[in-house]
Structures are given as structure tokens and as C-alpha cells.
Amino acid sequence: MITILSGGTGTPKLIQGIKEIYPEEKITVIVNTVENHYLSGGYIAADIDTVMYTFADMIDEEFWYGIKGDTFTIREKLIEMGTCELLKIGDMDRAIELQKAILLKDYTLTEVVEFQKNKLGIEATIIPMSDEDSEIKIITREHGEIDFHEFLIRYQCECEVLEVKYDNVSPSPKLIEAINKSDKVIIGPSNPITSIRPITTIEGVEQALKDKEVIAVSPFVGKSAFSGPANKFMSSFGYESSSIGVAKLYRSFLNKLVIDNQDESSKEEIEKIIPEAIVSNTFMKTLEDKINLAKIVLE
Ligand SMILES: C[C@H](OP(=O)(O)OP(=O)(O)OC[C@H]1O[C@@H](n2cnc3c(=O)[nH]c(N)nc32)[C@H](O)[C@@H]1O)C(=O)O
Ligand SMILES: O=c1nc2n(C[C@H](O)[C@H](O)[C@H](O)CO)c3cc(O)ccc3cc-2c(=O)[nH]1
Ligand SMILES: [Mg+2]
């Protein structure tokens, strides 16, 4: 049984490869919940929904959020009536969010996700990192403290990032047990600061990871992330935005780091920080790329 630590965009691509070659019922995914929030009566759990939609083969692969082919009738009517939502939410996606808000009145997020993933025919286990809500804030030079989604969407990540803040939350009931029971833990190429670190800094997680074979895929090539604001977030934490920075951030529990062919020259330096760096193609453009990378992390 394997456990995968996931955020949104990066790890779901790797999951697409893993689920082609590994029994889905033996996969557990622990998902970041740091950005979850209520919006327009629904409960947005962006990274959880991206992981669910990826397993259910309904993810919109242009944006890595939302459901492919979704319509936006409600959004358009809301705008016509003068209500603009920061997030672009499709009608089917909104149904999933509304159902979460309805069920969360009587059930925990862990229970709600279990119910919804079963309804979507998903055999993998999907566990929120916490059942507690938290808020992630970005401290910027230009606008002070702003919401994560304001930073991402309204300001298109263009601010100077001074700090990233999020609450410490308690682990969801099955989190530590999932890590302890797994033969291997895979940290996907998600944003190390806003997707992975919120999981690894939860009480008990780092200790549990130290007893496991942990392999990560770097979300960086050279000094840049493949996509998104990871560069700025790493720098704000004092880590270089590179695979070397990832090795340093995860050094207390990481056994292996998969780095891109273009970073071959960093292998020696990384192996002074963690036991092993594996050099491979880490660009996941095609399903074949994703399967090849999955074979490496499952070895
Ligand atoms: C805004 C975005 O957040 P989110 O959508 O939650 O994304 P993640 O934090 O899960 O992942 C972003 C992370 O993914 C890396 N990425 C994307 N495509 C690839 C790829 O083909 N190979 C590879 N090794 N990494 C990939 C990317 O560099 C990002 O850092 C966000 O925080 O970016
Ligand atoms: O950058 C955006 N991210 C959107 N996201 C993704 C999310 O806000 C973040 O980009 C990532 O999850 C960052 O972790 C959505 C997620 C959902 O679950 C539902 C709707 C959206 C809509 C947007 C959007 O319009 N723009
Ligand atoms: Mg995310």
C-alpha cells in the first residue's frame, strides 16, 4: 500500500501515471486542506476536488481544477444579478461544493470526502490532512496581508511575497495511521510551501515519515517551478527555489528525490543533503511521461 502527499496541480499529474500501473484500491492520498473555505454557500476544497476529479477521470486538465466540459450557467446568472465570485466555478463543480457544505453540518470533512469519492466510483482512499478549517494568508509588500486566492487570482501572483502564514491544525483521524501502514510514502511535485509543508508540519507527521521510505518528485527544474508561485514562496521561507531547496526543506524525512535531467549537475550536492537523488525526465506532458515517472517512484 502506498501513501501519496498531494496538493493540486503537480501531484495529480503523477497520480494519473501511478493509477495506470498500481492497484487503485492500494493507494491512499493525503490532501492539503489549508486553503479550504466557504464561498457562495458551497465549501471549496480545491486540492481535494482536484485529486477526486483526477481519480474519476473528470478533471479539467487545462486548469487542474474543476470538471472538464462543465457549464457555467449559475456563475453567469450570478454575474448578471451583480454577484461576482473570485473563483470561476462550474455548475457540476458547484454541486460537489454545495453537497460538502450540506453534509459538513452533520459530518466531518473526512466522512464527507469518503462519501463523495465513493459516489464518484473512486477505489483509492482520499484523506484530508485535517478536519479543522484553517486560513492561509500571503503577506505581500504591495498589499500587506491578503487571502491566498486573492494573491493567486486577483493579483495573479505578481506581488512580492514577504511571508506565507497558515494555522497549525490537528491531524485528521486516519492521517498518521495511513502513513504508518504504508510500504512507501510518495511526496508529489506539489508546491512545497503551500501544499506539502502544511501536511508535514502537522503534529506527528514528520515523526511518522522518518520511519518510512519517503521519495519525492521535485516541482522545480533549474531555479524555476514548472508552474505557479512556488519560487516566491520558497524564497520567503529562506529556501532556494530549486531541487536543492526542496532537498533541504524535506531533509529530516526524505530518502530519495527525483530531479529533472536538466538538474543532473545538482545530484552530487543533493546527495550531501539526503541519501539519494534520481535523475530522470520530470516534465509530465503525456500519459507516457506520467507512467515513466510513476515507475521510478514505485520502484
Ligand atoms: C497554484 C498552484 O497550487 P496547486 O494547484 O495546489 O498546485 P500544487 O501545489 O499541487 O502543484 C504546483 C506545483 O506543481 C508543479 N508541477 C506542475 N506540473 C509539473 C510537471 O509536469 N512536473 C513536475 N515535476 N512538477 C510539476 C509546479 O512546479 C508547481 O510548483 C501552485 O502552487 O503552483
Ligand atoms: O487560479 C484559480 N484557481 C481556481 N481554483 C484553484 C484553487 O483556487 C487554486 O488555484 C489551487 O488550488 C491552489 O492551491 C479553483 C478551485 C476549485 O476547487 C474551484 C474553482 C476554482 C477556480 C479557480 C480560478 O478561477 N482561478
Ligand atoms: Mg493547492
TrEMBL record:
Organism, as annotated: Methanobrevibacter olleyae
Name of protein: 2-phospho-L-lactate transferase
GO molecular function: LPPG:FO 2-phospho-L-lactate transferase activity; magnesium ion binding
Top EC group: transferase
Binding positions (7,8-didemethyl-8-hydroxy-5-deazariboflavin): D49, K88
Cofactor names: Mg(2+)
Family stated for the protein in its record: Belongs to the CofD family.
HAMAP family: CofD
CDD domains given in the database record: CofD_like
GO biological process: F420-0 metabolic process
EC annotation from Swiss-Prot or TrEMBL: 2.7.8.28
